[in-house]
Amino acid sequence: MYLEKTIGIVVPCYDVSHLIEKVIDDMPSFVDHIVCIDDCSNDSTKELIAKKAALDSRVILLEHHENQGVGGAIASGYIWTRDQKIDVSVVMAGDGQMDPADLENIIKPVALGEVDYTKGNRFFNPDVLRKMPKVRFFGNIALSFLTKIASGYWHIADTQSGYTAVSLKVLETIDPDKIYKRYGMPNDFLTTLNIFDFSVKDIPINPVYDIGEISGIRIRKVLFSISFLLVVLFLKRMLLKYVYKSFHPLVLLYLYGFPSFLLGTGAGLLIMIIDQFVPDLSVGYGWMLFFAMLSISGYFSIVIAMFMDMQHNMKIDKS
To answer: Quick one: 88 and 22 in the same domain?
Structure first.
């Protein structure tokens, strides 16, 4: 236990036979349960977890009979900790990329009841550029910016970090089984947290790389698939939080802003191309001015809507 709170560690595992034993062995003594979810591994991961479970009563093995992705594995762990009424559930990957030395800092704000959810932020570490692969670093920055817009947590960064802690109250409110199953799980979960006005806090953590981990992430593929997911999540949050639960005028600003900016900017670029390559086809200055004003007004509508979203969410900003 930690601060009189039970602690459960959710460990999603897929082909991590070379690291899972170290991950389990390095768990601090205040951890009550180590819930390892084998996501249909092709190696001996399941057998090694079972071996550890026979020696350490804290270790629980959950098995998937077909691969569900990291989000699906985390969901299975969350369901177990929720049903067991565990006070704080922490996600630590089975590949050893989450430093146990950071665990207490991740847990403490949730255990004290200061926030509902904490997540690690590798960007706070001054050595992050040296430790994190550059492609992942800049891809993470892009997705973090898009997730700010989609989720409404403007104070949060490093959104792809999976080192998190969540309260029992959250897991009893949000159905873990409805969590997005693949690599977009952190983005989906953050957006859902915002819809229910749960508080979130970033915790500085140490980036851990080059320990033998094997990443299954393909940056280009994930960047586009998660970007599309974020558009869907943004629309979902606008509908549920600012229309269904309580109407907010920022929805109208977004409804005007995005189409106007895209139409105005697109038409403006088309006019420039026509003027450059088809000089005989004249486009009147009136239309040029119209599309310029449309683009500018759309841009400022988006900015004002974002500002209003930030102001609305200040009450759950615990940074």
So the answer is: yes
